[in-house]
Design goal:
This protein is α/β, with parallel strands linked by helices. The protein is built from ten helices and 23 strands. The strands form five sheets. An eight-stranded mixed β-sheet has the order 7-22-23-21-20-17-18-19, with helices on both faces. It has a seven-stranded mixed β-sheet with strand order 10-9-8-11-12-13-14. Helix 6 links the parallel strand 17 and strand 18.
Length: about 425
């Protein structure tokens, strides 16, 4: 590539995906505000980037795989910069809706703390390779020392290679989701060969050889040496294969603590989008909880964990699609006793329809957990317009070195 084909630009800010943005706009991956760079224009993206004048907040990426791996976007930035930027992403989303609030200090999970990851495992002529896809690429980058994953997940790579050798086709890599648990690894495999008798035998042998707690092939259970339980408060829960969990123990603890503070002394709580009980079970130490979730098998796991635990108050459950069938005022304020607080932890789309019903019901307290600052700000605007106060926001960074941002917020009816 000749110098004449290159464009020089100054990075003005970072976008929500963590890319630097120069006038145009032009998007420049792995750059920082204030940097002067050069690159080749391809559509709206600069490629073949050279850092001509680096930012003071630029650092040497700690991971040897950073240049080729697509798992992280921000290892080239200092920890302080990333923390401030993630808080500013939330603050900016609120300001676009005319909202201001107090921000608690960000809670960042340590390196090597991710308890769950989905790896790609590809058969090769000599065996198998395991890693992550490169940025916007189908190429699998082999990972030998990841700074994100918990040591138990890194130690499982030989097991994932063995699964690929016996169960992957030569056309497509396996998708292997690993989750740490109290009993060992919970393993879910997708995109593998059709399950037949010989393959089932080989997979069952892998359970014993690699001390896997549970192995699931697509939706077929292969075997379970011990239930792969997770601890939520005083309860132990065995989630269904592939169920949602918070990415790190530290991140989960920060969110649970924020929710507990937000609901305060509430005695009856509705936990919406409850999953397997991340919030319901800790809250049941002091309050009666009604857990609502669209996936029945997740609620069954929650119920089983509650029944086996000691000292918890009553938990009731409801399998319900809260997007199509949100809880109405008569559900949130039943004739016998109204709910003192609602905990809501929706997917990235937010909970526009459900928030409208919370407003109609005038539930006194809302603890809102979000993985998308933009939809959170939209829903918070609705609540504030109806008379709620946005008391504070706690930003939680459990997807370290990524552009992903989570938060918990306290809202009370004035």
């Amino acid at each position: 590539m000749t110098n004449a084909a290159r464009t020089r630009a100054t990075i003005e800010r970072l976008g929500h995906q963590g890319d630097g943005i120069a006038p145009g706009p032009l998007f420049a991956p792995r750059t920082l505000p204030g940097e002067i760079i050069s690159g080749v224009i391809s559509g709206q993206t600069l490629t073949d980037i050279r850092i001509e004048e680096p930012s003071e907040t630029r650092v040497q990426a700690p991971c040897r795989h950073y240049k080729s791996c697509g798992g992280c976007q921000l290892q080239h930035a200092s920890d302080d910069f990333v923390a401030d930027w993630k808080v500013d992403v939330v603050r900016h989303a609120l300001r676009t809706r005319g909202l201001e609030t107090d921000f608690r200090p960000i809670q960042t999970s340590p390196s090597r703390s991710r308890r769950r990851a989905t790896l790609s495992a590809k058969r090769t002529k000599k065996g198998a390779m395991v890693g992550f896809h490169g940025r916007a690429s189908d190429i699998v980058t082999e990972i030998t020392d990841c700074h994100l994953l918990a040591p138990e997940l890194m130690a499982a790579i030989p097991m994932v290679e063995a699964l690929a050798i016996v169960g992957a086709s030569r056309k497509a890599p396996l998708s292997v989701t690993l989750t740490t648990s109290d009993a060992g690894l919970d393993v879910l495999v997708r995109n593998g060969k059709p399950l037949d008798g010989p393959l089932r035998i080989q997979l069952a042998q892998s359970i014993e050889r690699y001390e896997i707690a549970r192995l699931t092939w697509e939706d077929e259970p292969i075997g379970m040496e011990q239930p792969p339980t997770q601890r939520f408060g005083a309860a132990r829960v065995c989630p269904p294969p592939g169920s949602f969990l918070q990415a790190t123990h530290e991140g989960e603890a920060a969110l649970v603590a924020a929710v507990q503070e937000a609901v305060g002394e509430a005695r009856r709580i509705a936990d919406l989008f409850a999953g397997c009980g991340t919030f319901s079970l800790p809250l049941a130490q002091k309050a009666e909880v009604h857990a609502v979730e669209g996936e029945r098998d997740m609620l069954q796991a929650l119920e089983q964990g509650w029944r086996m635990a000691r000292g918890l108050k009553k938990i009731t459950t409801d399998t319900r699609d809260l997007f199509r069938n949100p809880m109405l005022p008569e559900d949130l304020k039943p004739f016998d006793a109204a709910y003192d607080a609602v905990v809501i932890d929706p997917p990235r789309a937010g909970a526009e329809a459900q928030v409208a019903e919370i407003v109609r019901a005038k539930v006194p307290t809302v603890a809102y957990v979000s993985c998308n600052p933009v939809t959170f700000a939209r829903d918070a605007e609705t609540l504030v317009a109806a008379g709620y106060s946005l008391n504070w926001v706690q930003v939680v960074d459990q997807f370290r070195w990524s552009s992903h941002t989570e938060l918990a917020a306290s809202l009370t009816l004035s």
